[in-house]
Write a sequence for this structure.
């Protein structure tokens, strides 16, 4: 499944200017050209984690260059169902990233950023499903009308 820029912005509640800026400073995004659908679900998860780091933790997106490449690589390797049971574990000193299962977070010897993936994936699924359900059924332009029984049995030839 490939997502468009608009779908990504809608799912992340991200402005067009923010995504445009991110495309200039995040290497995995800078290689994407044009307006065709080019984002995978793994890309969407990586972008959601970056959004949490920038919006909630105040990390400038320009400082996430080293982390972003590893993040996009790892998020594209597995399905969302696997990531739902994991958390992103980030060392803020080196920007090393690993995904660990929630129940297996190792003992920490220094500061770390732990971002559970389940709530992120839940909100992304909800955003994508809302977007799909809006276009799932188009309203009828004309009201339903009853067709007389004799017309139905004649097979359309009523002369």
């Amino acid at each position: 499944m490939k997502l468009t820029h608009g779908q990504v912005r809608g799912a992340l509640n991200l402005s067009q200017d923010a995504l445009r800026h991110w495309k200039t400073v995040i290497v995995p995004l800078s290689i994407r050209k044009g307006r065709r659908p080019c984002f995978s679900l793994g890309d969407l998860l990586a972008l959601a984690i970056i959004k949490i780091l920038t919006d909630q933790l105040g990390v400038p997106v320009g400082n996430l260059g080293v982390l972003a490449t590893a993040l996009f690589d790892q998020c594209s390797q597995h399905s969302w169902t696997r990531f739902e049971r994991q958390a992103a574990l980030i060392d803020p000193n080196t920007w090393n990233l690993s995904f660990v299962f929630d129940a297996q977070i190792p003992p920490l010897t220094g500061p770390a950023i732990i971002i559970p993936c389940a709530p992120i994936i839940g909100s992304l699924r909800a955003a994508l499903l809302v977007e799909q359900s809006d276009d799932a059924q188009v309203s009828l332009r004309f009201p339903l009308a009853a067709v007389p029984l004799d017309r139905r049995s004649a097979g359309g030839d009523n002369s």
User: Anything to note?
Assistant: The first strand starts at residue 86 and ends at 91. The chain has a mean pLDDT of 84. The chain has one domain: 5-136. The two ends are 50 Å apart (CA to CA).
